Amino acid sequence: MKITNKLKYIGLAMLTLFVSACDNGFDEINTDPNSPVAVPASTLVTNGIFNVGYTYWDRDLNFEFGELMVQHMAQNEYTEEQRYSFATSDFNFRWGNLYSGQNVAAPTGGLYDLAAARNLVLENVNLSDAQRANQLAVIDIYMSFGYQMITDMWGDIPYSQAFQPSEYPFPAYDAQSDVYAGMISAVTDAVNSINTSETGFTSGDILFGGDMAQWEAFGNALLIRMGMRVGNSAAVAAGFGGTLPTSDMMLVFSESQDVSNPFYQDKVVSSRDDFRISAELVAAMNAQSDPRLTAYAMPAPGTDVIVGMPYGLSDGDAFTLKNSTSDIHTNIEDDPTAPAYLFTMAELEFFRAEAIVRGYITGNDAAAFAAAIDHSVAQWGVSSPGYGASIAYGSTNAEKLDAIALQKWIALYTNGVEAYAEWRRLDHPALTPSANAVSGVTGIPTRMLYPNTEDGTNGENLAAANGGSNSLNDRVGWDAN
C-alpha cells in the first residue's frame, strides 16, 4: 500500500533550513531571510547525515521497494508493490527525500544540506587547513554514499551539475559510469586527505562523533562497495589496502518518535501491519538450518513455527493468509532505537571473498566466506559457533560466486537498498516474479521510475537520460551486461 512518509529532522535542523533547491544559490543558504540566525555547517551536516541515512532505511525505498523486489518480505494485503504496480508519481517522495530538495514534506533534501554545508566549510576562515580537509572529507564521503543509493536505484542522474542552481538550474544527467568514476575519485581523494590526529566536525557528526579514523574506515569500505559494484579492481584493492572497519557501522535512532527507527515508526507509530517474512526466504534458510531465522521473524500465531508468506499474491489471497503467517521479528519492528546498518562486517567479508575469487586481491576466500556468515550471525544476536564453516562453498569460481550471492542475499535481510543492488549485480539467487504482476512489466523490476516531478521541472534533460527510456524493466549501467 503506497504511503507517503514524512522525513524526520533532528533538533534545530527542524527549524532552521527551509529553502528551495531551485530558487537560491548556496551563497544564500546559510542565511534565513526571515531570521537573523545563521545556520552553521555542523547543523546542516547533522540534517544531511540523518536524512540520507533515514531514507536508506525508510519504508519507501527500503522495505516497500528493495525488500519486496528481492523477496525478503511479502505483503499481506494491499499488494500493489509486489505485483509491480507503480506509476511515476509513486517515486516523487523517494527522489525528493534523497535528491531534489523540492518535496513539500521535505523541502531540504539530505544531499542538498550536505552540499550547502560543503560551501560553508570552504568559506570558513576560522578553520585550519587540516580541519577544513577533514570536514570536506566527511561531507564528500557521505555525499557519495547518498549518490550511490540514487544511481543504483535509478541509473543516470544529475551529478556533475547537481546542487549548483545559480549556474545549472536545470542540471544535465550524467551516465552512471561517469557518476561512479566521479564518486570513486571523490572518496579516494577524501580518504587520502584525512588527518586522523586532527578534528573533523566537533559537533554535528551524529555518525562517528568526529572520529576521523572511523570516517577513513567508512570511506575505504565505500570504495570497496563501489568498486565491486562496477568491477573497478583498483578501487577495491585500494579500499582493502587501507584502514577498515572493525565493527558494524550504524546510524543509531532514538526513543523519540520523530527520530526513531523507520520499521518502528511504520509498525508502532503508524499502526501498519503490511509485511510478512516471505516463504521464499524461509525455505532457503530452513534448507541450511539457519540459526538466524528465529531472529528474522516471529512464529506464526498460535504455533512455534515460522511460516513464510508466499510472494506476489493478490490482495485477497494474501489477506487470507495474513493471520497464519509469520510477522517480522519484534526486535526489528518494535524497537525505536534499532539501528540502520550502513555497512556491516559481514558485507565487508563477503566482498573480500568475492574479490579474492575475481583476482582483485589475494587471500583465503573460503575463510572470508565463512567469516562473513559468522559476522552476520553475530550481528543478529545469535550464538552458533562455526556455523559459517558448515555452509557449502563450492570448488569452481562459478559455484563460489553463487554461494557468496546466496549467503549475502540472506545476510542483507532488512537492508533492501543493498540487497536489491547485489541481487541485480550477482544475478543470484534465481527469484520467480509475481504470478500476479501487472500488465506491461516483464519480470522483477530492475530499476525505479524517474518521478513525474522531475519530468515537470527538468523534462528536457530527463528525456535524454537512460537512453530516453523510463521503464521498470530498464537496467542501470552496471547491470546492463
Percent of residues in helical segments?
A: 40-55%
Instruction: Determine Rg (CA atoms, Å).
Output: 22 Å
Low-confidence stretches: 3-37, 102-107
The helix/strand order is: HHHEHHHHHHEHEHHHHEHHHHH
Shape: globular
Structural class by secondary-structure content: mainly alpha
User: Count of DSSP helices?
Assistant: 19
Adjacency order of strands in the biggest sheet:
1-3
- Distance linking N and C termini: 33 Å
Strand content: under 5%
The pLDDT mean sits at 90
Strand count, sense and closure of the main sheet? Answer: 2 strands, antiparallel
SSE layout and pairing:
Elements: H1 13-16, H2 41-57, H3 59-69, E1 73-75, H4 92-100, H5 110-123, H6 129-154, H7 176-193, H8 212-230, H9 233-240, E2 249-251, H10 262-269, E3 275-277, H11 279-286, H12 293-296, H13 315-321, H14 330-333, E4 340-343, H15 345-357, H16 365-379, H17 397-411, H18 416-426, H19 452-464
Antiparallel strand pairs: 1-3, 2-4
Helix pairs in contact: 2-5, 2-6, 3-18, 5-6, 6-7, 6-8, 7-8, 8-9, 15-16, 15-17, 16-17, 17-18
